[in-house]
């Protein structure tokens, strides 16, 4: 997942920078999504012990999973809308240029948050495998929490130390970087919490 994110968005950013062609970026996203889907298919088949990816579809099992899948899909859709509603509300309160500055900071904060998803997904299999051993679950959570606090403290220190420089380099405008910096700081604190 992390590699696919880096390829998709890092490669997309590089394409935009080099070509300024939105169509190429969209084609790039589609290509990376197809490659990721094929890779996940192969990994899932190997994990399930299937050869050549051939198995008989168990429709009754699929139908049993549909209500939970639909609920999770709805949660993801609502979450996506919730991460964007702040910009709609803000657009009614401030000028367009201020909304643009906030949008830059918000997108960076959401991107930082998306970096945590692979880590969280990596913890779940360990928890599921020991779900009846309460002491081991607590140990995993304590270790994970300690790592999260340490990583968050390091990330915030790096942002406070280098954030302005990185924003200046990225945005190529010191005034815009100076305006985005404090907004992004607040959003990053919220993301880390």
User: How large is the count of helical segments?
Assistant: 6
How large is the radius of gyration?
A: 21 Å
Order of helices and strands: HHHHHH
* Portion in helices: over 70%
Distance between the termini: 23 Å
Number of strands: 0
Given the C-alpha coordinates, what overall shape results?
Answer: globular
Biggest pleated sheet: none
**Which residue ranges are poorly predicted, with pLDDT under 50 across at least 5 consecutive positions?**
none
Give the overall average pLDDT.
Answer: 84
The computed structural class is: mainly alpha
Proportion of β residues?
under 5%
Tell me what the structure shows.
- The protein is globular, with a radius of gyration of 21 Å.
- α3 (59-91) packs antiparallel against α4 (96-129).
- With 193 residues, it is mostly helical.
- 88% of the residues lie in helices and 0% in strands.
- The protein has helices at 2-19, 22-48, 59-91, 96-129, 134-171, 174-192.
- The chain has six helices and no strands.
């Amino acid at each position: 997942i992390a590699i696919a994110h880096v390829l998709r968005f890092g490669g997309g950013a590089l394409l935009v920078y080099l070509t300024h062609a939105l169509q190429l970026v969209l084609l790039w996203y589609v290509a990376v999504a197809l490659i990721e889907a094929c890779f996940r298919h192969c990994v899932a088949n190997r994990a399930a012990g299937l050869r050549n990816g051939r198995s008989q579809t168990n429709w009754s099992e699929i139908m049993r999973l549909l209500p939970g899948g639909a609920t999770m899909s709805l949660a993801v859709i609502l979450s996506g809308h919730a991460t964007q509603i702040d910009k709609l509300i803000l657009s009614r309160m401030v000028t367009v240029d201020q909304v643009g500055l906030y949008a830059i900071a918000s997108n960076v904060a959401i991107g930082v948050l998306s970096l945590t998803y692979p880590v969280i997904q990596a913890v779940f299999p360990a928890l599921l495998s020991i779900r009846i051993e309460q002491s081991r679950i607590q140990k995993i959570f304590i270790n994970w929490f300690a790592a999260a606090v340490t990583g968050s403290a390091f990330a915030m220190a790096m942002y406070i130390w280098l954030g302005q420089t990185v924003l200046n380099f990225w945005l190529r405008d010191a005034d815009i970087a100076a305006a985005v910096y404090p907004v992004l700081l607040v959003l990053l604190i919220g993301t880390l919490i």
